[in-house]
Design brief:
By secondary structure, this protein is an alpha/beta fold. Among the domains are: 71 residues, 434 Repressor (Amino-terminal Domain) (Orthogonal Bundle), CATH 1.10.260; 132 residues, Rossmann fold (3-Layer(aba) Sandwich), CATH 3.40.50. It has ten helices and twelve strands. Helix 4 links the parallel strand 1 and strand 2.
């Protein structure tokens, strides 16, 4: 199980199966069974042991037999939220470009916005003795990213931040991009502008909503809260929300979509409404993050664009600066990358 083999100098001694058993007040055999998949363990007991494992930050050392003492794994763990989103494919590509140049390899996991799955994947990565982590985080629980929980493995947060997480982070200038987009729509004369956003626990959604509201405040215009729809997780949910907005007696004349999946759903709803004649003049759309075939959208579209691969490259360079010691004495760093607006 967990041992010292392969641990980097300075890493804290990890807990053993016996330590977990003592804290959970069960036998070491029960802990081993849970770690092996939970077969023949009552569900309630399995959940109890899994909770203890998560709380104490235990990680199986999957590389203990293959790594000699002091040897590094050459692995960097990367967690993204949605492998089906081309945006994150670009982020991963950028990370790999930089990491591969140092002779290291990346391990990629997908959380699907599931915090429990994120914790499991973090545990798996740490069990494989990754040298560092680049994570697109789920939610705002910063405790899981504490140095003690991660056994001092360096961490960079990508695209999103987490409150109380003492980690480097690289973001897009979400607030400025959303403010500029909303200001353009207001200057064009739009007053009924809808905002389609994702979960409020996602920091990018919060920041983009903040920028959107600030443009209205700057112009002395009130946001119509009936047109603000949050919690949209995918294109299907966005399409449904957009259809509902279009059926209002006074529908929005412009729409701000907080990410590319939301934009795709909104375009589908608007295009279908135009096709069936229920909408004569389609609302103009501002999309945050580009997507395939954006230039072929059947409605007026502008995109708040940036390079996801560059975000990945910057995140990887920040991580490597921790690994090689060049940034060892610096506190948590924050980098914000610029955006630009593309009109299609």
């Amino acid at each position: 199980m967990q041992g010292s083999a392969g641990s980097a100098p300075g890493r804290k001694t990890a807990m053993t199966v016996k330590d977990i058993a003592r804290v959970a007040e069960v036998s070491p055999m029960t802990v081993s069974r849970v770690l092996s998949g939970g077969k023949n363990v009552r569900p309630a007991l399995r959940e109890h042991v899994e909770r203890v494992i998560a709380e104490v930050g235990y990680h199986r050392n999957e590389n203990a037999r293959s790594l000699r003492p002091g040897q590094r794994s050459g692995l960097v763990g990367v967690l993204i939220t949605n492998i089906g989103n081309p945006y994150y494919a670009g982020v991963v590509q950028g990370i790999e470009q930089v990491v591969a140049a140092t002779g290291r390899r990346i391990l990629v996991g997908t959380t699907n916005e599931d915090s429990d799955l994120e914790r499991q994947l973090l545990s798996d990565f740490l069990g494989r003795q990754v040298e560092g982590l680049v994570v697109v985080p789920v939610g705002q629980d910063g405790d899981r990213f504490s140095a003690a929980r991660l056994h001092d493995v360096p961490l960079v947060l990508a695209s999103r931040t987490v409150e109380r997480a003492p980690a480097d982070a690289v973001l897009i200038d979400d607030v400025h991009g959303a403010r500029e987009a909303a200001a353009i729509m207001l200057r064009e004369g739009h007053r009924r502008v809808a905002f389609l956003g994702n979960k409020v626990t996602v920091s990018t959604g919060q920041r983009r909503l903040t920028g959107f509201r600030s443009a209205f405040a700057d112009s002395g215009t009130a946001v119509d809260e009936r047109l603000v729809v949050l919690g949209l997780q995918d294109a299907e949910a966005s399409e449904h929300a957009m259809r509902e907005l279009l059926t209002l007696a006074d529908p929005p004349t412009a729409v701000f979509a907080a990410n590319n999946r939301i934009s795709v759903g909104a375009i589908r709803a608007i295009a279908r409404a135009v096709a069936d004649g229920s909408v004569a003049v389609p609302p103009r759309l501002f999309a945050f993050d580009s997507f395939d075939f954006a230039d072929m959208a059947p409605i007026p579209l502008s995109v708040i664009d940036h390079d996801p691969a560059e975000l990945g490259r910057v995140a990887a360079r920040m991580l490597l600066s921790r690994l090689d010691g060049s940034a060892a004495d610096e506190g948590a760093r924050l980098v914000e990358l610029p955006v630009h607006i593309v009109h299609h």
